[in-house]
Automatic annotation (TrEMBL):
Residue stretches spanning the membrane: none
Localization, UniProt: Periplasm
Recorded family membership: Belongs to the bacterial solute-binding protein 2 family.
Name listed for the protein in its UniProt record: ABC transporter substrate-binding protein
CDD domains, sorted: PBP1_ABC_xylose_binding-like (cd19995)
Cleavable signal peptide: 1-24
Record domain Periplasmic binding protein: where: 30-292
GO molecular function ontology, one term from the record: carbohydrate binding
Length: 349
């Protein structure tokens, strides 16, 4: 009886210690480090989505959010800072995918897990990678434009411009590869191509203005890799008095882009609610905190990964894809300047 009591007491003690260890793991610090403010998505969608998921999955965890504002050195400092603050997992969307290899090595050498987010880190495998399928995004937006040009009767051999993302962003490279796969196999020619530093819309606008001067009416469409660069291109077209504006692609389904699509100024975008990827990153982070290994859905750059498939949005399906699914509301999008166009599409407040 005494032996059984001792065993029971020992078991209870061990269970208590294990429970305390699990709680300590789950109450850890997790960092969410984003790359820039050129796109509004990080403050409007990614971080709020990640924070909400972490509160649900690990209420006692501390979440640190910082944005590097397209500064490689600042992101290095931020990584050092969150490590000093005891972060056990770092969710990292790198400013520079190549430079981030050193950050991965530094963190992993200290037993810290790195989740690459949105932008991959090709040179050194992170512990996990979550994103939408970037190459698929590029292929989809470009093919959508090609199909639209054909349906509109634009003759074979007509020209398009290609505006890529940042040359330091590996995800931009994947999007570019996807765009190439659709354009190279089409009957349309690429007049000129541009890699946009830091995804900066003013740079895309400046470059597009130069191409309008160079090619004029030869430009029958523009494949822009995201909504920011698309907005820059559209601003250049309007400033030059181009009417009608040729179809311009985008990606991210920002509020501004959705309004441009409703108004007929932008042809398409990609609906990829960042909250989906943010939640996946939170789930992976909590799995790591429990000392478990998250199950990969695929592998990219030798990194276990999960890649989500997004939807192409045009004026024809924007109501079904964006408003009927609750991704945005008419109150947010259909402001005074867009109220009539929204009503035309059956989007009402």
């Amino acid at each position: 009886m005494k032996t059984r009591t001792s065993i029971a007491a020992a078991s209870a003690l061990i269970a208590g210690l294990l429970g305390g260890a699990a709680t300590a793991q789950e109450a850890a610090t997790v960092a969410f480090l984003m790359p820039d403010q050129a796109s509004t998505r990080y403050e409007e969608h990614d971080f709020p989505g990640f924070e909400a998921a972490m509160k649900e999955l690990c209420a006692e965890c501390t979440v640190i959010y910082q944005n590097a504002n397209a500064d490689v050195s600042l992101q290095q400092q931020q990584v050092n800072s969150v490590i000093a603050q005891g972060a056990k997992v770092i969710v990292l969307d790198p400013v520079d995918s190549a430079a981030a290899a050193g950050l991965v090595q530094m963190a992993q050498s200290q037993g810290i897990k790195i989740i690459a987010y949105d932008r991959p880190i090709p040179d050194v495998p992170a512990d996990y990678y979550v994103s939408f399928d970037n190459e698929g995004i590029g292929a989809a937006i470009a093919q959508s434009l090609v199909d639209h040009l054909k349906a509109s009767g634009v003759a074979a051999g007509a020209g398009v411009l290609q505006i890529n993302g940042s040359p330091t962003d590996a995800a931009a490279g994947l999007i570019r590869d996807g765009i190439d796969s659709s354009l190279d196999g089409s009957e349309y020619k690429t007049l000129a191509e541009y890699d946009t530093p830091d995804w900066a819309p003013p740079k895309a606008q400046e470059w597009t203005a130069g191409q309008i001067t160079r090619f004029g009416a030869e430009i029958t469409g523009i494949v822009a890799a995201n909504d920011g660069t698309a907005g820059g291109a559209i601003a250049a077209l309007k400033a030059a008095g181009v009417d009608p504006v040729p179809p311009v692609t985008g990606n991210d389904a920002t509020i501004a882009a959705l309004q441009l699509i409703i108004a007929g100024d932008q042809y398409n975008t990609i609906s990829k609610p960042s909250e989906i990827v943010a939640r996946a990153a939170a789930e992976v982070a909590v799995t790591f905190l429990k000392s478990e290994t998250p199950e990969p859905k695929t592998t990219l750059y030798n990194t276990p990964s999960e890649l989500f498939v997004p939807a192409v949005v045009t004026r024809e399906n924007i109501k079904a894809e964006i408003f009927d699914k609750g991704i945005q509301t008419a109150e947010q999008i259909c402001t005074a300047d867009y109220a009539d166009a929204c009503a035309e599409l059956g989007i009402t407040q």
